[in-house]
Amino acid sequence: MEVTGMDDDNVGGTGYSVEDLSAYLDRGRTPRIAAIESSAPCRAVLTSMERMAQLSRDLVATEADRPLAESWYDGIMREVAREFRAGRDIPLAPEVEGVELVATEGALHELVRTVGDAVPGILIGRVHLRPTEDASVHDILVSISVRFGRRIGAVVHEVRTAVRDALERQGGLRVGTVDVTVDDVHVEGDEA
Amino acid sequence: MSVPVAAGAAQRIDEIVAAVPGVVECYAAAPIVTRVVQRLAEPEGALSHVRETGTGREVTVSIGVSVDDNSAVVAAAVAAAVVADAAPLPVSVKVRVSRFVASA
């Protein structure tokens, strides 16, 4: 798997670039690199790469007449690398007696992407968590690609519900608005 | 002023954290600069970040949980396990959920 055009050359502060991670994955993650395996952002990017690799294999297996465009792949991986940076610590509960429970912004991006991709006929494009004036509330902005033939209104409702439920299941997190933008339509063979 | 504790203490906390139900993975918890230095000295060192202060111990751990779980509940259980292990010494704990891992 070749990854081109990435500008993130230091995923998770490890000193390894997205290209390095791609090569490491291609080598079967051997020899083991502790700095990568112990880094949450690196592990998240590797998981996404594995998923994208499976998608590519599926397309080859089904001899899809519309193969996955490299530019599309690069675009998604660029978003993944950007989103999975740890970012801010977001409280999961009020700090009590020396105990602080937080989730990273990158982890919440991954959660939104995972539950969104689980909705049939959907591929998540971009994810953004936008803080509101109330620090415990975040607005969520998601862009999606919808499979050709699916009713967009119903799909958007499913994505919005899945994202809200997943986030509000995490302790004290509260979701304000969930804005879902449909910015692409794809055919069935494009899905993992 | 705080100082790092012996690696054995951090590795013990790694084991305690990994044993908490709902913890799927553990990651390096120290700040990036600290991790770089630690990696040079000990590439396969402990993942938990543990420091002694004048008033007690500060522990930071970084975990991954399943997308199907309530991360706050898992994180609270991790914190309780770390506090219980340190008792009666005072300890402050930061549990950072760094990944939500999809179910296999």
Describe the protein.
Chain A is of the alpha+beta class and 192 residues long. Chain A has 6 helices and 5 strands. Chain A has a 3-stranded mixed beta sheet. In chain A, strands 1-2 form a two-stranded antiparallel ribbon. Chain B has 104 residues and is of the alpha+beta class. Chain B contains 3 helices and 5 strands. In chain B, a hairpin with a 2-residue loop joins β3 and β4. The mean pLDDT of chain B is 85. The interface between A and B is medium-sized, with 34 and 35 residues. β2 of chain A pairs parallel with β5 of chain B.
Quick recap:
The complex is a heterodimer of chains A (192) and B (104). Chain A is an alpha+beta fold. Chain A contains six helices and five strands; from the N terminus they run ααααββαββαβ.
Strand arrangement within the widest β-sheet of chain A reads: 3-4-5
The number of E-state strands of chain A comes to 5
**Multimerization state:** heterodimer
Largest interface between protein chains, with number of residues from each side:
A-B, 34 and 35 residues
What does the largest sheet of chain B look like?
5 strands, mixed
| Class computed from helices, strands and strand pairing of chain B | alpha+beta
Query: Globular, elongated, flat, extended or rod-shaped: what is the shape of chain B?
Result: globular
Model regions low in confidence, pLDDT < 50 over at least 5 residues of chain B: none
Envelope shape of chain A:
flat
Cα(first) to Cα(last) distance of chain B is: 44 Å
Structural class call of chain A reads: alpha+beta
Determine the N-to-C terminus distance of chain A.
16 Å
Summed over residues and divided by their number, the pLDDT of chain A gives a mean of: 80
Total number of helices of chain B: 3
The unreliable regions of chain A are 1-7
Task: Count the DSSP helices of chain A.
Answer: 6
Strand content of chain A: 15-25%
H-E string of chain B: EHEHEEHE
